[in-house]
Amino acid sequence: MRILVNLLLDTLPMLGNVLLLCFFVFFIFGIIGVQLWAGLLRNRCFLEENFTIQGDVALPPYYQPEEDDEMPFICSLSGDNGIMGCHEIPPLKEQGRECCLSKDDVYDFGAGRQDLNASGLCVNWNRYYNVCRTGSANPHKGAINFDNIGYAWIVIFQVITLEGWVEIMYYVMDAHSFYNFIYFILLII
C-alpha cells in the first residue's frame, strides 16, 4: 500500500504538466471561439418592425420551433455566410395540415377565424418571421454560447467529451459559416 501511495505522489508533477497543457488548449480554443462567434448563437428570425395584426392573434416576437428552446432555429445575419436563413422557416402546421393562407387572405375573404379553422384553412404566420437579428436567449437555456471565455470553456469541455458536440457544431455552422467544422474537428483531435 505504501508503494502505491508513493507512486501516486511521484506522478503528480507529470499530471500537473498535462493539466497545464489542457488549460493552454482550452484557453487558445476559447479565445478563438469568443472572437469568431460571440453573440451569434442568439440570432433569431423576428417579425418586421411595422408588422401589424388585426384581430386576437398573439404571435411570439421571434420564430420558435414547436420543439421549444431545446432545438432553436438559429439564423445567419446578412454579413455572415451561415447555412440557415429566415426564408428556410418551415410553414406552420395546425392539426396536421400545412397552413397556406396569408394574413391578407383572411381579411379579403371576410370570413371569420372560426370558419377558416372549420374548413381546414389556416394562416401561415411563420412566413412573416423574415428579419434575422440578435435576440436575448442562447440555446439550451443559455448554456451553449461563446459570449465569454467561461461559457466557451464549458462548450469546449462538452465538445471534447463527445456528448452533443455535433449539435453545437451545427448551431455555429447555421449562424456563421459552413467551414466552422474545422474548429470542432481540430478540438476533438
From TrEMBL:
Where does this protein come from, organism-wise?
A: Cervus elaphus hippelaphus
Membrane-spanning ranges:
12-34, 143-162
Q: Which SUPFAM superfamilies match?
A: Voltage-gated potassium channels
Kindly state which keywords UniProt assigns to this record, in alphabetical order. Calcium, Calcium channel, Calcium transport, Ion channel, Ion transport, Membrane, Transmembrane, Transmembrane helix, Transport, Voltage-gated channel
InterPro entries membership: Ion_trans_dom, VDCC_alpha-1_subunit
Q: Identify the GO cellular component terms for this protein.
A: voltage-gated calcium channel complex
Pfam family for this entry, one: Ion_trans
Q: What is a biological process (GO) this protein takes part in?
A: calcium ion import across plasma membrane
- Write the protein's name: Ion transport domain-containing protein
For this UniProt entry, the molecular function terms from Gene Ontology, in alphabetical order, are: high voltage-gated calcium channel activity
Q: Which compartment or compartments is the protein found in?
A: Membrane
| Top-level taxonomy | Eukaryota, Metazoa, Chordata, Craniata, Vertebrata
* Topology in membrane: Multi-pass membrane protein
List, for all copies, the residue spans of the domain called Ion transport: 1-189
